[in-house]
Amino acid sequence: MRAASDPTALTPNAVPAGDGFYPALWRCWRRHLWVKVFGISGFMWLFFIGYFHLLRHPAYPVTVMPLTWLDQAIPLQPGWLAAYVSLWVYVGIAPGLFLTLRRLVSYGLWVGAMCLTGLACFYFWPNAVPPHGIDVSGHAGFALLQGVDAAGNACPSLHVASAAWSALWLRRQLTVLGSPRRWHVVNIVWFLAITYSTLATKQHVALDALAGMLLGGLFALAALRWGPRAEGGPQGAR
């Protein structure tokens, strides 16, 4: 156990006296900024190489995921497309709040393990959502979405898994920084909006979302227990 005087041993609300949440947030965000920008972008690029390869070259027959009563109850709602694509902003917030490269790398290894687990599922069990039979040609953005995020590689939903992972990690980071409660509410609402959007845009079915939530949640809980500590305030900038 680290001594209480260790400046890198952070606990919740470890923001120096007289320093507020927003200055601490800015301090974390600008620390190693370009490493974070290019690192997160590079990680996404590598992930999509593997994702699209498995999508276009399934190793086994593709299973069509069954619909549940929830899928039948939720109609196509084009207005949720913005929430769906907002994931690519959401996933960058938690790692953007790390102060040290060691913890940033450890975070990346854990989330990489989660994504590799999802890709392994797609390799051994290729699957796709059933055709929804809805003409989306009149809805802006849907043609592009279906071109870059096709209906294959559906279960577990890595969209939901990434959102669940990010929600739990961002909760920890906000707690460490002494965030006002409203930002915790924003975090929860954003996660729920992304999850619901996967069903409302018909990119996933309910079973995909449930499996993705379990995948992301389990890996996040494991990483929070055995992975890098959350950081905040200048004490962690060493």
From TrEMBL:
Keywords: Membrane, Transmembrane, Transmembrane helix. The chain crosses the membrane at residues 33-54, 74-93, 105-125, 150-170, 182-199, 205-224. Pfam families: PAP2_3. Residues 80-219 form the Inositolphosphotransferase Aur1/Ipt1 domain. This is Phosphatase PAP2 family protein.
